[in-house]
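Quick one, probably user error.
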């Protein structure tokens, strides 16, 4: 742990040296990690606690890790979460009896760590939060109270605090909570929406008991910028997990479209930003506020990327983002950037009593680098950075084979689950990071669990086959047959891109796989090279030549126990090792084929948690997908 901490701190201290040429998402992440080197101190002068701001920031760092492949972000997240979770899964400073929806937010990192590492303590801790949800007090309509001490109240904020965790937990542990999750959005939207503007009031009191609540509607008096930001982010994040075929999914997308349209109407015309109270921009004392702008940019840009919103929202996002950089971002003498003008808090009720008036919202102080603004700034920056590359894969689909590679195992719950080189597998054995990279290039990802045919490959631009099963891995493997090779060859000649990733000859079904590979002048053979002993990383080195058309600009990657490739016909070697071809390419008809004798771009070798950073597997995976998606 000491070595990991030293690595994180040294990385942070070096940040300003390269900040000028570094994306804003990374610059802000490094700045905040420098400020919060030991723990995330949300309330200055008070000990760090289990807090939703901590969870928001760590979720942003997780996205930076998935964008960069830099393991220092993962190590920072794990160190922080581990400071709260003991081996029994207890959560330090968390109080179940508060029934505080804010306490659920950081649980998203518990789910991430459990999926990637598999340690039971993260699952046990997440189960405590799930238990809270099951016992959370509800309004008579079934809506979650924001907190136990805020009886019968639903706040926009609470939808972000609770629902993304609830949705991901349901997906990970196969619970059917989708109607209940949808219900929370239905109730909040129905009760908080203003029919004239389409905007959402900050909160409502179902029983009309609060002094701030309208006796007729139960609504709070004003539209608050950040509250609507929480809600918009909740929608785009919950949709990541919500089943595609569920009848309520379109309701969530409809809400996102309606709210986004309403927010654009109150966007400040000159700056593209939003006021603290968005409809009262001309009222004296109102001001342009940072956190809501970052939240809207994130929700708009992600909504466009995922296909929920029309592409026109990118223009609104870009205008706002340009002004965020101009008006809210500053740089200190050390070269670290900071986010200004985030309102510290906004609430209702409590003591001293917050009445939801204009004067109240104007009375809350502004902070620099408040995590409620800086976390969404990282997320918004990532989306704007990703948006520049979406054209590479726009309208295209990448299909991963689940037929020739068809491995299952029994999980800790005793259920059989598919694993090994799948999009869904977040452990070392999966292709989850490759899937993220592919989607960030604008392409859709899919899988094929049936024998490939021209018909069921229709609509796919890229088809990846990895490490076909032998009987050692699957009792009844689906071997490559002549008819399968015929169909795939037709598809390639018609313009498809085929990626063949074998394995060493002792761990892969090679002879029948070659039925396909030989169609393109490639044959996986021995000897196996780069036989790495322990952590002698250098034994797995493959240097990249300067004229490599796929990996141009890279220097070396890590590949161990790789089969060699015998070439003929149209195939050409891209890289040789010890006099043998280990990487090849062929143009066949209108299509192209890439072959390499190892599944080297799965999570274990792209998340950089083990291999040294000098190996460029993560950027190499992205370059491979760029090559595959381009004509």
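Nope, works fine. Designed sequence:
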């Amino acid at each position: 742990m000491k070595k990991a901490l030293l690595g994180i701190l040294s990385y942070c201290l070096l940040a300003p040296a390269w900040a000028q040429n570094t994306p804003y998402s990374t610059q802000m992440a490094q700045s905040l990690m420098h400020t919060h080197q030991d723990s995330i101190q949300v309330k200055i002068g008070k000990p760090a606690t289990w807090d939703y701001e901590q969870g928001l920031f760590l979720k942003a760092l997780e996205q930076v890790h998935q964008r960069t492949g830099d393991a220092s972000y993962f190590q920072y997240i794990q160190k922080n979460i581990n400071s709260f979770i003991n081996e029994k899964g207890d959560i330090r400073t968390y109080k179940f009896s508060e029934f505080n929806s804010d306490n659920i937010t950081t649980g998203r990192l518990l789910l991430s760590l459990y999926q990637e590492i598999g340690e039971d303590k993260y699952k046990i801790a997440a189960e405590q939060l799930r238990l809270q949800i099951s016992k959370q007090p509800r309004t008579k309509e079934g809506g979650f109270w924001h907190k136990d001490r805020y009886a019968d109240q639903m706040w926009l904020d609470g939808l972000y605090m609770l629902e993304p965790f609830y949705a991901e937990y349901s997906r990970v542990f196969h619970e059917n909570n989708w109607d209940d999750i949808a219900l929370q959005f239905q109730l909040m939207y129905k009760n908080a929406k203003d029919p004239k503007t389409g905007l959402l009031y900050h909160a409502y009191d179902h029983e009309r008991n609060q002094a701030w609540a309208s006796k007729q509607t139960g609504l709070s008096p004003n539209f608050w910028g950040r509250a609507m930001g929480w809600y918009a982010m909740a929608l785009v994040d919950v949709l990541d997990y919500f089943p595609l075929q569920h009848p309520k999914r379109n309701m969530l997308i409809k809400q996102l479209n309606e709210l986004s349209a309403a927010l654009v109407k109150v966007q400040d015309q000159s700056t593209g930003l939003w006021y603290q109270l968005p409809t009262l921009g001309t009222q004296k004392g109102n001001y342009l506020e940072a956190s809501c702008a970052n939240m809207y940019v994130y929700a708009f840009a992600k909504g466009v990327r995922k296909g929920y919103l029309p592409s026109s929202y990118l223009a609104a996002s870009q205008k706002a983002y340009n002004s965020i950089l101009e008006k809210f971002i500053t740089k200190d003498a050390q070269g670290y950037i900071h986010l200004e003008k985030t309102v510290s808090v906004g609430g209702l009720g409590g003591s001293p009593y917050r009445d939801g008036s204009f004067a109240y919202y104007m009375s809350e102080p502004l902070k620099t680098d408040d995590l409620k603004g800086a976390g969404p700034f990282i997320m918004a920056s990532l989306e704007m950075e990703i948006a520049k590359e979406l054209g590479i894969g726009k309208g295209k689909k990448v299909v991963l084979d689940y037929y020739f590679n068809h491995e299952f195992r029994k999980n800790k719950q005793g259920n059989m689950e598919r694993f090994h080189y799948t999009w869904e597998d977040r452990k070392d054995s999966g292709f989850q990071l490759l899937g993220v990279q592919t989607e960030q290039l604008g392409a859709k990802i899919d899988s094929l669990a049936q024998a490939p045919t021209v018909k069921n490959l229709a609509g796919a631009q890229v088809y990846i086959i990895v490490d076909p099963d032998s009987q050692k891995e699957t009792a009844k493997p689906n071997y490559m047959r002549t008819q399968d090779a015929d169909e795939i060859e037709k598809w390639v000649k018609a313009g498809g891109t085929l990626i063949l990733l074998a394995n060493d000859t002792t761990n892969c079904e090679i002879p029948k796989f070659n039925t396909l590979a030989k169609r393109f002048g490639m044959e996986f053979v021995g000897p196996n090279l780069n036989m790495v002993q322990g952590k002698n990383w250098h034994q797995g080195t493959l240097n990249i030549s300067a004229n490599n058309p796929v990996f141009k600009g890279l220097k070396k990657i890590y590949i161990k126990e790789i089969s060699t490739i015998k070439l003929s016909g149209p195939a050409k070697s891209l890289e040789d090792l010890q006099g043998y071809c280990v990487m090849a390419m062929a143009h066949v008809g209108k299509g192209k084929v890439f072959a390499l004798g190892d599944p080297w771009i799965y999570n274990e070798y792209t998340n950089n948690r083990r291999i040294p950073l000098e190996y460029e597997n993560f950027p190499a995976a992205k370059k491979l997908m760029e090559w595959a998606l381009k004509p």
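The chain has two domains: 24-388, 397-629.
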